[in-house]
Amino acid sequence: MKLQFVEAGEIVTTHGVRGEVKVLPWLDCPDMLCEFDRCRMDGKEYVIEQCRVQKTCNLVKLQGIDTMEDAQKLRGKIIELYREDIDDEVIFAAELVGVEVYADGNCIGKITEVLDYPGNSVYVVDNGKYMLPAVKEFILSTDMENNKMQVKLIEGMRSDEN
Fold first, then answer.
1. Residues paired with residue 128 on neighbouring β-strands, in sequence order
2. What is the C-alpha separation between 97 and 139, in angstroms, rounded?
């Protein structure tokens, strides 16, 4: 299910005296956040005046946040991006929860969780009934409009198999 807003990171601290904030990004890489012109927090839209990468974080200057005191009030807030600003080809883990999974034309359940591992993500179907590695060999297609995913199963993917 496509979300209206996507959580992109958390403001962890301030940076400098001119209102910049340090964001711990939850996207694939910190560079992604720099591609956006706007975000929102607590239902309020903010214009991103400047965004740059610093190691594994982002330093972000938001319009209207001009002092360290203003920035301090944002600590711990979650930055959300507008889904309409993101390429339709990009699918987020939160959007996959609830997607129906089909193998050989039969529905085997719904994705209940997405686990992130260093090599790849793993889709948990029906609370652990199936564990599907998120790689192209097993995930044949994903149709977000119809809330369906086609997969290829092999021996050992079903958790109650010997």
1. none
2. 15
